[in-house]
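A student in our group prepared the protein record below, which I am reviewing. Thanks in advance; the entry in question is below.
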Amino acid sequence: MSLFRKLFFSKSKSDETKEDLQTQARSKYMPEINLPIDESFMFNFKKNGGKFLYCDSEDEVLDAFDKILLENDWYEKNVCCFDINLSHRFTGYNLNFAATANTADFFFASCEYLIADSGAILISSNQLREKKMHELPDDFIILASTSQLVQNIGEGLKGIKEKNKNAIPSNITTIKNFEPQKEKDFMSYGNTTKNLYLLLLEDL
């Protein structure tokens, strides 16, 4: 069983209570525990309200995608997708792949990197073109792989620069708010909340 599958199995109430007690027992002056990069992303992504589906294979990716469509009644709906390869890869679901955002029921894309220390998803014009977040549907499905995990935003930006030496993409941004916030504060001002599903394919 892979590490990710172990991590994302739901825990029992007794396990959660035990973890809570251990956390409370730690002094606030003790240094924070440095989690492995995959566990760190898992913890922060879920804390941000993201929905996570781990996949061992391409068949599991397609099955998970199908379950998301079923859950949200998205069959025969309009999909905003700027990636021709993705639209070809996910044919057979009676979806209308279109490049227009204002008539789409959800947005489907890949990403640049997954940022462990914030649980955010790093994207650019490679996925968004020149669209702003508020111009896209409220519901996102993002396809990524475990090789795209990086520790922090700096590593992600460095990776984008190395992969795109001839022309660095524009519109680089992160998504990290995945559920409605009950109370807005100045730290969240200007952030756009998205209901986001992450399909993560194991490729390491």
Notes: The longest helix spans residues 58-72. Helices lie at 3-8, 13-25, 37-47, 58-72, 84-89, 125-128, 153-163. The chain is about 30% helix and 20% strand.
